[in-house]
């Protein structure tokens, strides 16, 4: 039975951290969990324990894989990780491979989201990421400056206040896949403004943009001194 509160979210548009949508119950659920997690004091030590399940795909360092099958999540903003986990748990973002690892029965409730997000944020990033062929970088830089800096920053540093992701040094193939999914609507929790910006982008533009972003260097404090060759 649908109650009055749920009916409101089924009929009225609202905004989730810059992500506009016409709500279903899942959007309400994710928003409430996200707000709850954001108010909690995170425990990175417990987050490290929770992260053990994430390390299966994202690797112990949070570097993902250079082929782009799994993204680098090390250094990602606390607010972004909480939002994405909450959206996956509420079925607002389709991620079948990650869903079983993200559900409350597996990692816990809002406190666990806060904890694991805090742990991921302090992980150091690698620059040994998957990259494109490097032939269209000037065009990629132009596209980035004209279309991406307002939300993702001059160096791809994102904006934790509005839950805009840090994207610097992300794997090329992962970026390319997400850009395509945002354009065609497969990534359902994408920012509506971003969808409008890239709706007419061509394959060349996506490749140039993804290649440029994959080569952006994180700030010194976020960098790991190690690369894939140094992993033990």
What key phrases describe this protein's structure?
13 helices, disordered N terminus, mainly alpha, globular, 232 residues, two-stranded antiparallel ribbon, Cytochrome Bc1 Complex, Chain D, domain 2
Describe the structure.
- With 232 residues, the chain is mainly alpha-helical.
- It has a single domain (4-230), classed as Orthogonal Bundle (Cytochrome Bc1 Complex, Chain D, domain 2), CATH 1.10.760.
- The protein is built from 13 helices and two strands; from the N terminus they run H-E-E-H-H-H-H-H-H-H-H-H-H-H-H.
- It has helices at 4-11, 25-39, 44-51, 55-58, 78-89, 99-102, 104-107, 110-122, 137-147, 149-152, 172-184, 192-198, 203-214, and strands at 13-16, 19-22.
- It has a two-stranded antiparallel ribbon.
- A hairpin with a 2-residue loop joins strand 1 and strand 2.
- Helix 5 crosses helix 8.
- The radius of gyration is 18 Å and the shape is globular.
- The termini are far apart.
Summarize the topology.
Elements lengths: L3 H8 L1 E4 L2 E4 L2 H15 L4 H8 L3 H4 L19 H12 L9 H4 L1 H4 L2 H13 L14 H11 L1 H4 L19 H13 L7 H7 L4 H12 L18
Antiparallel strand pairs: 1-2
Helix pairs in contact: 2-5, 2-8, 3-8, 5-8, 9-13, 11-13
């Amino acid at each position: 039975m649908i109650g009055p509160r749920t009916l409101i979210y089924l009929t009225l548009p609202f905004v989730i951290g810059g992500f506009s949508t016409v709500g279903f119950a899942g959007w309400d659920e994710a928003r409430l969990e996200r707000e709850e997690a954001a108010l909690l004091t995170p425990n990175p030590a417990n987050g490290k324990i929770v992260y053990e399940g994430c390390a299966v795909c994202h690797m112990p360092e949070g570097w993902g894989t250079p082929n782009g099958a799994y993204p680098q999540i090390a250094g990602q903003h606390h607010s972004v990780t909480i939002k994405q986990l909450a959206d996956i748990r509420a079925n607002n973002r389709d991620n079948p491979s990650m869903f079983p690892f993200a559900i409350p029965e597996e990692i816990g409730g809002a406190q666990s989201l806060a904890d694991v997000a805090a742990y991921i944020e302090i992980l150091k990033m690698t620059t040994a990421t998957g990259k494109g062929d490097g032939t269209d970088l000037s065009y990629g830089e132009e596209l980035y400056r004209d279309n991406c800096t307002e939300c993702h920053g001059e160096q791809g540093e994102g904006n934790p206040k509005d839950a805009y992701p840090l994207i610097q040094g992300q794997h090329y193939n992962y970026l390319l896949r997400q850009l395509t999914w945002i354009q065609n609507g497969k990534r359902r929790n994408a920012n509506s403004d971003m969808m409008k910006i890239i709706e007419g982008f061509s394959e060349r533009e996506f490749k140039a943009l993804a290649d440029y972003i994959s080569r952006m260097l994180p700030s010194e404090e976020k960098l790991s001194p190690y690369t894939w060759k140094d992993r033990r």
